[in-house]
Amino acid sequence: xxxxxxxxxxxxxxxxxxxxxxxxxxxxxxxxxxxxxxxxxxxxxxxxxxxxxxxxxxxxxxxxxxxxxxxxxxxxxxxxxxxxxxxxxxxxxxxxxxxxxxxxxxxxxxxxxxxxxxxxxxxxxxxxxxxxxxxxxxxxxxxxxxxxxxxxxxxxxxxxxxxxxxxxxxxxxxxxxxxxxxxxxxxxxxxxxxxxxxxxxxxxxxxxxxxxxxxxxxxxxxxxxxxxxxxxxxxxxxxxxxxxxxxxxxxxxxxxxxxxx
Length: 261
Fold this sequence. Notes:
Blueprint: H1 9-18, E1 23-28, E2 36-40, E3 45-51, E4 63-67, E5 70-71, E6 82-87, E7 98-103, E8 106-118, E9 126-132, E10 137-142, E11 151-156, E12 159-160, H2 163-166, E13 168-172, E14 176-181, H3 186-189, E15 191-199, E16 203-214, H4 222-242, H5 244-260
C-alpha cells in the first residue's frame, strides 16, 4: 500500500499567502509562517528568489527585487530564473522593511518577506556631570529597543529617585528617558545616578551618571558694563564739544600770558 501525505488545507492557504505558485523566496535566517524574518541588529540576511519549474519564470524570464516600493539594483546575471539579495549589516532602518521578488512581465507573480530587526537599549558605561547650585539638572538615557523596553528605573546612590523630595520629573518617550530637576541643591542632587531599562528579550541594561554640584558663580554683567562705559564716553564727548569755544579761548589766553612773561 502506498501512502500519500498532503498538507492540510489551512496550511496550504497560509503558504500561498506568502509564496505564490510561480515565485518563492528562501532565506537565511528562515522565514516564519507569517512571512517574517527575525534578525538581530548588524547581522546578515540572505534572500534567494526561485522560479518554480512549472511557471513562466523557468524560461529565463527576468526577476525583479523591491525593497518596500523601491527597485533594488541587480547585475544582469542575477536576474534570470533565480536571484539573490544580501542585506549586510542589518540596520535600524531595515526594521519593518518588506522585500518582494516578482516577474518583470507579471507583477502579480511575486513573493514577499518582512524583516523584524530586534535590538536592545544601548545603555552602558558612565558619564561625569557638573551642575551649579540653582541651575537645571538634565540626565538622559537611550531606551530605543525592539521589542520596546518594559520598565525604566532611575536611582540615586542606590535608592529609587524620590521625585517629590528632589523636585524631579521623569519623562519616558519611545527613544529616551529623561530625568530633570529645575533647581539644583548640593544636599539633594549630588551623587551617583543610574538609569536601568528592562528589556523583555535582553534583560537589564544600565548607565550611570556621577553628578557633582558646584557653588553658584556670580556672572560678571559684561554687556551692561560695556553699555554704561559707552554712555559715559558719549556724555564726556558731548560735554567737550558743547564747551569747545570756551576751551579754545581759555587756551589762547594762557598762551598770551606765557608770551608776555
